[in-house]
Amino acid sequence: MKFTYTHTTYACYLCYIAGAVINNFAPLLFVVFSNQFGISLNQLSYVIIMNFAVQMVVDFISAKYVDKIGYRRMIVIALFMAFLGLVSLGTLPFIMPAYAGILTSVFFYAVGSGMLEVMVSPTIEALPNTGVKEKAMSLLHSFYCWGCVLCICASTLYFKMFGVNNWRYLCYLWSVIPFATIFLFLKVPIIPFAGGEGKVPFAKLFKMKIFWVFALLMMCSGASELAMAQWASLFAETGLGVSKTLGDLLGPCFFAILMGIARALYGKCGDRLNLVSALIVSGLVSICGYLMSSLCQNPIISLVGCGICGFGVAIMWPGVLSLAAKHCAFGGTAIFGLLAMSGDIGCWVGPLTVARVSSNLSIMGSELKAGLLFSIIFPVLMIIGVMILKRMVTKKQN
C-alpha cells in the first residue's frame, strides 16, 4: 500500500483523539480511585497538576531538540509513551502502592501527550495538500473535541455494561488507539516544518515582543477553555441536581460537542473569514457564555451558556497557532513547543482560578458561579492581545 499525505493527515487526527483520551479518561475514574484505593481528593488534585506540569516541561524540551531527533522518531516515541501510560494505568495500581502506580502512569502518558502537542500541529502545517492552513489546523483540533466526546460517551457506556469495577480493562482498550497509530507513523510521509529563513535561537526569540504576545494569547486560550471545561461536570451536577453520569454527558460532553462543531465549521469555511476578526468574535462569544453560566438563575440557561462558551473558545488555540506559523515562522518548530507550553500554563491557571475564587466568594448561593464569572478575564485579555497583535502586524507591513 502506498501511503500519501492524506494518510498523514488521518494519522494526525488519531494523535489528537489519543491526546483527548489521555487528558479526559483518568478524571472519569477519580471517584473510583477514591473508593477503591482510599486516595484523598487532595492527592487526586496532584494527579491533574502532575499531568500538566510534565506536559509543560516536555513542551519546552521537545521544542529545543525536535530538529535534532527528527519528526518521525519523536512522534513514534510520543505514541509509545501514551500507549505505555494507559497500559500502566490498568496495571501498576494493582502491583505496587496504588497512588504511586497512578502517578507513574500519568507521568508516562503526560510525556507522550506533551510531545504530541508539539509535533502534530507543525506536521499538519507543513503538509502540501491541506489547502488553507487555518482551516486545516482548526479541523485537526476539532478531532480533540470528538476524542473528548468519544472518551466520555464510550467510557460511560462501558461502565454501564460491564461495571465500574472492571475499569482497568478499559485502559487496555483505549491504549489500542496510540498503539495502532504508531504503525501509521512508521509509514506515512512527513515533511518537517521549515518556518522562515534562518531560525531564531531561543534567547533571541524571548527578546521579541511578538513572541510574548503570542504566548499571552495561548495562555488565554488554554485558560478560557479549561476554566469552563474542567468544572463543567460539577457545574451540571450542582446546577441541575443530576447524577455523575448525566453530569458528564450534560457538562463536559456538551461543551466538547459545541467546541468540535465550531472547529469543524471553521475547518470547512474558514477561508471566507479573517482569522484575527474571528478570534475577537470568539472572545466576545466566550464572554457571553461565561456571563450566562454565572449570572442566570435558570439552570438550563446556565448550561446553555456552558455550551456557548465551548463554541466561543473553539478556534482560539488552533487559530493562535496558525497566526504564529504565519507571523512568527522564524522560530521554526520551536515556536510550536514554546506556545504549547504557554497554552498548558493557561490550562493550569484557568481551573485553578475558578477553584480559588469559588472558595472565597459566592453568587446567588453558588460558589462555582463566582469563579466562572471571574474567569471572564481570560477572554477579555484574549481580545486585548489580538488587538495588540493586529496593530503590530499592521505596523510591520507599513
The gist of it:
This protein is mainly α and about 400 residues long.
Keywords, separated by commas or semicolons:
398 residues; 18 helices; globular
Protein architecture, described:
This protein is about 80% helix and about 0% strand. The chain is an all-alpha fold and about 400 residues long. It has two domains: about 1-195, Growth Hormone, Chain: A (Up-down Bundle); about 195-398, Up-down Bundle (Growth Hormone, Chain: A), CATH 1.20.1250.20. Helix 1 packs antiparallel against helix 5 (about 100-125), helix 10 (about 210-230) packs antiparallel against helix 14 (about 300-315) and helix 11 (about 230-240) packs across helix 12 (about 245-270). The longest helix has 30 residues, at about 135-160. The mean pLDDT is about 85.
Give the helices and strands, then pairings.
Layout: H1 5-28, H2 30-37, H3 41-69, H4 71-89, H5 98-126, H6 133-162, H7 167-174, H8 176-185, H9 202-205, H10 209-229, H11 232-240, H12 244-269, H13 275-295, H14 299-313, H15 316-327, H16 333-360, H17 367-374, H18 377-397
Helix pairs in contact: 1-5, 1-6, 1-8, 3-5, 3-16, 4-5, 4-7, 4-8, 5-16, 6-12, 6-15, 10-14, 10-15, 10-16, 10-18, 11-12, 11-14, 12-14, 13-14, 13-15, 13-17, 13-18, 15-16, 16-17
